[in-house]
Write a structure and sequence with these properties.
Layout lengths: L1 H5 L14 H9 L13 H8 L6 H17 L3 H8 L2 E5 L2 E8 L2 E6 L2 E4 L2 E2 L3 H13 L9 E2 L8 H18 L4 H10 L3 E2 L8 E8 L2 E8 L8 E7 L2 H4 L2 H16 L1
Antiparallel strand pairs: 1-2, 2-3, 3-4, 4-5, 6-10, 7-8, 8-9, 9-10
The protein binds iron/sulfur cluster.
């Protein structure tokens, strides 16, 4: 953005329809305007700069994933495996931490995350796993089941979460408790008991130390079926809450597929 700003007259004249040159530069950076939308810029002079592709969200995820990879790759693998509920091994390629994420096996090696012996290319899987490993959470489960909204700074996720996760599960498995139980089992879930009463409660480990409790109430004459997803309050020790929210969303997508 600064590079673009430096090319402008910086008089904040507003002829481009944007009040300041800085705001204009930001719009150009985000590909909402072109540099030559400023009447003082000669297109031929700037074409090479404006042809640079804009930074996309995928680029940002890739950048975050690369930063976390460096940190996760530097931890003591043996200690980390113990802390996060993974399995430590020394294989042909060196030290490895084997970890399950949503019932799928992954290997953390010094050179990054692998899936079925192939380098993982999904930025979000990498971000979640690297953050989980580098934090080495190491806190026992508290036994306090909480909803996502319990954790700080999750207000923006809560409504979307109810709609896209809990209501979705309730609608899809309405009058189909058998189907719900079968799906939970397929994803490695174990029928569980909790402090609350529900027609069915299942524990599914999103990551070894991050269990998700699926609580389901069947429909009756008065109320439709409903579902609540709970996490143990220790989850924030293990993973950034933004990433946790995303992990749960991904789980629900997979669950209802
Ligand atoms: S027209 Fe050009 S100089 Fe004027 S505010 Fe917009 S960018 Fe700045």
């Amino acid at each position: 953005m600064i590079e673009i700003y430096k090319k402008l007259p910086r008089t904040n004249c507003g002829k481009c329809g944007v009040p300041t040159c800085m705001a204009f530069a930001l719009k150009v950076k985000n590909a909402q305007l072109r540099l030559w939308d400023c009447p003082y810029i000669v297109r031929e002079d700037v074409e090479p700069v404006s042809q640079k592709p804009p930074v996309t969200m995928d680029d940002n995820y890739e950048r975050v994933s690369n930063e976390l990879e460096v940190e996760a790759g530097q931890v003591n693998f043996k200690e980390a495996a113990l802390a996060i509920g993974g399995h430590f091994e020394v294989g042909k390629s060196g030290e490895i931490i084997k970890v399950m994420m949503m019932n799928k096996p992954y290997e953390m090696r010094r050179e990054g995350l692998f899936e079925n012996d192939v380098s993982c290319h999904d930025s979000w899987s990498k971000i979640i796993m690297y953050d989980y490993i580098r934090r080495m959470g190491c806190k026992p489960l508290t036994g306090d089941w909480v909803t996502l909204g319990y954790f700080p700074n999750t207000a923006s996720h809560v409504k979307a979460f109810q709609r896209s996760a809990e209501e979705k599960v309730a609608t899809i498995f309405n009058k189909n408790l058998r189907g719900l139980k079968a799906r939970c089992k397929e994803l490695g879930g174990v029928e569980s008991q909790g402090k609350m009463k529900a027609d069915y409660i299942c524990r599914i480990d999103l990551l070894p130390r991050i269990p998700l409790y699926v609580c389901f109430w069947e429909a009756d004459e008065e109320f439709p079926a409903s579902c609540k997803l709970f996490l143990d309050s220790s989850a924030e020790t293990y993973i950034d809450i933004e990433y946790l929210a995303y992990l749960v969303e991904r789980f629900v997508e997979k669950f209802v597929k």
